[in-house]
């Protein structure tokens, strides 16, 4: 990711953190006020902290895979195209934390909030998981350009199977804006102990990835302008992790079960959309893809 975009992402999260702290401090100020309200009539502050774990999966569509100095042949460039590139990542675990507030009936810096505001809130979410991809892409079309011959000859074409393997740790940091409903009201939880909710927000997707590309034997077809035969499988593999940060969009849909005033149990589904672009300098290898990431989580939260 370009340095400028990385700086913009970090700037956004600094601003989001300041806004979060601003509201949390306002809520804390109200909770610490010395009032004469009876304990049974006092409202909840809305702050919560949650830890969760679950199962992660997803799929990706590789839109462009290009490499130069292919198979250690100088001045040769290959572009790979595959029409059935929707492949799933390996199933793995995921874990994370949330910190935020519901805008429940309270005063923020001495200003009373309307009653409908209790249905809304926001939280910061950070999760970690492993990203692993290992698939054979059959009927992959390869377009070759050879810069050592006359450019007027044009490209050469071949069809073969390639195997792409990528793996590495990743994390998603997101700032979520949430809305909720409440059912089955109780004395301790006026909104209701059953609270379905939805949340959406921007995020930053952090990833460290190694990659390996294995190209099966093949030769160019009769439509090609020059002949090339690859007699043995060719392997290109990165040695070091490629570290990147990409903008992302996250969506949560869940059910919060809150039998107690200060404790709740959360089940939620998360979706993340991200378009990563990797560049491996060792092989002048570029990889563009569109990722759809999913996870199911169970969590436990403390409310203050």
Give an overview of the whole structure.
- Strand 5 (107-108) and strand 6 (111-112) form a beta hairpin.
- Helices cover 10% and strands 60% of the residues.
- The strands form 3 sheets. Strands 1, 2, 3, 4, 7, 8, 9, 12, 13, 14, 15 and 16 form a 12-stranded antiparallel β-sheet that branches. It has a two-stranded antiparallel ribbon with strand order 5-6.
- The protein has 1 helix and 16 strands.
- The protein has one domain: Porin (Beta Barrel).
- It starts with a helix and ends with a strand.
- It has 304 residues and is mostly beta strands.
Question: Could you list some keywords that capture this structure?
Answer:
304 residues; mainly beta; Porin; twelve-stranded antiparallel beta sheet; two-stranded antiparallel sheet; 1 helix; 16 strands; elongated
Q: Kindly state the mean pLDDT as a whole number?
A: 80
Tell me the domain tally: 1
CATH topology: Porin
- Contiguous low-pLDDT stretches (5 residues minimum) are 26-44
Q: Determine and state the CATH class.
A: Mainly Beta
Shape category: elongated
Q: Treating each run of at least 4 consecutive H or I residues as one helix, how many helices?
A: 1
Structural class: mainly beta
